[in-house]
Design a protein that fits this description.
By secondary structure, the chain is of the alpha+beta class. The chain folds into three domains: 2-118, 2-Layer Sandwich (Uridine Diphospho-n-acetylenolpyruvylglucosamine Reductase, domain 2); 125-243, Uridine Diphospho-n-acetylenolpyruvylglucosamine Reductase, domain 3; 247-309, no CATH class. It has helices spanning 30-41, 54-57, 77-89, 143-152, 169-174, 182-185, 188-191, 220-224, 258-272, 284-292; strands at 2-7, 20-25, 46-47, 70-72, 94-97, 115-118, 125-129, 134-138, 155-156, 192-198, 204-207, 233-240, 242-243. The structure holds flavin-adenine dinucleotide. Flavin-adenine dinucleotide binds at residues 60, 95-103, 106-107, 119, 139, 161-163, 167-168, 170-172, 174-175, 177-179, 228-229, 233-234.
Length: 309
């Protein structure tokens, strides 16, 4: 079923003499979308009952309240490509979703007619190569599991954030997440060497570069990282890993003002150089929240002891 749309050419923008004619498919109902998706990826990979979608629809702060036409969980890259190809042909909006921990609502529907594409089933660690300092993780790998895979080989992936038990590699890259070690290692973009992604027409962009000294061509991975799914759906990435440090020290220092914190920061940087890998200014209100909700037993700033670990 299709209807056509006649558009006049834009005035004097290009030298066009003919009228443009686009074929626009008739909008599909949610039931039609769900059954088309089930035919592509199998019924067990499609959730169409709204009452069963809450885990995908409710973002952490519950600020956005739209439903979805369906949730689909493709079991393979090929299945995802087929879903994207079909959605493109039928003009169905897709919202990629990883761990659903994003705080700006970009992983949930805006109109309620889109399909949420969960990457949760693409959760394989493809390789960890400590000699090359690279690991390859699929988009659905939970960040904490990526940490564990690196650590099992005596390496570390230095991107830590409070949502790491749920956030997934595809979401972390797509939001160019930072976390507590940005100071030393940069945001997700700086830790990414290459990306594999399904483009809007279903083609697979194979950019899993693992070569550090690569100066060829355009850096498409830098466009895909931080694009929040607008340029493609990330299916896997090559990520930088580093040798695990033998030891580390953490100090909690009470300061009277942000200016005083800056002085401490500069002093630490002078003394420690690149060994300083995290520095966070924590306002007391953050500790107050944790005390009030039982996440801390005692106020750690109440009786400061130098060298607190
Ligand atoms: C307690 C908490 C602490 C946090 N701390 C930090 C922090 O310190 N620093 C920081 O930067 N952020 C932080 N965040 C937010 C952070 O962006 C997310 O936690 C995380 O990076 C998103 O990963 P996710 O898998 O949950 O992605 P989602 O929330 O599922 O998605 C995030 C975005 O990426 C897109 N997306 C998801 N997967 C893909 C994919 N495979 N391909 C293309 N697009 C995709 C989504 O459409 C959406 O636009 C925190 C969040 C919480 C809840």
């Amino acid at each position: 079923m299709s209807e056509s749309l006649d558009l006049e050419p834009p005035p004097r923008l290009w030298h066009m003499s003919a009228t443009c004619r686009f074929e626009v498919p008739m909008p599909l109902s949610s039931a039609e979308i769900a059954s088309a998706l089930a035919a592509i990826v199998g019924a067990d990979a499609v959730i169409s009952d709204t009452s069963k979608m809450s885990a995908w629809l409710n973002e952490p702060r519950k600020r956005f309240h739209k439903t979805a036409a369906a949730v689909v969980t493709p079991p393979s890259v090929e299945a995802l490509q087929a879903v994207v190809r079909w959605a493109n042909a039928n003009r169905i909006g897709l919202i990629p979703q990883g761990g659903n921990t994003g705080l700006v609502g970009a992983q949930v529907p805006l109109f309620g007619t889109e399909v949420i594409v969960s990457l949760a089933r693409l959760d394989r660690m493809r390789s960890v190569d400590t000699a090359a300092g690279v690991m390859t993780a699929e988009a659905g790998v939970i960040l904490e599991n990526a940490h564990k895979s690196a650590e099992a080989q005596g390496a570390m992936f230095p991107l830590w954030l409070a949502s790491q038990g749920s956030a997934r590699i595809g979401g972390v890259l797509s939001s160019n997440a930072g976390g507590v070690n940005v100071l030393a290692y940069g945001n997700a973009r700086e830790l990414t060497m290459g990306v594999e992604a399904v483009l809007a027409d279903g083609r697979l962009y194979q950019g899993l570069n693992a070569l550090k000294k690569d100066n060829t061509g355009y850096d498409l991975k830098d466009l895909l990282v931080g694009a929040e799914g607008t340029l493609g759906i990330i299916t896997a990435a090559t990520l930088k890993i580093f040798p695990l440090p033998e030891d580390h020290e953490t100090a909690l220092v009470n300061v009277a003002s942000p200016e005083a914190a800056l002085e401490v920061f500069q002093l630490m940087r002078q003394r420690l150089g690149s060994r300083l890998n995290a520095f966070e200014l924590i306002p007391h209100i953050g500790l107050d929240f944790q005390l009030r909700h039982g996440m801390l037993d005692a106020d750690p700033t109440a009786s400061p002891s130098p060298g607190t670990r």
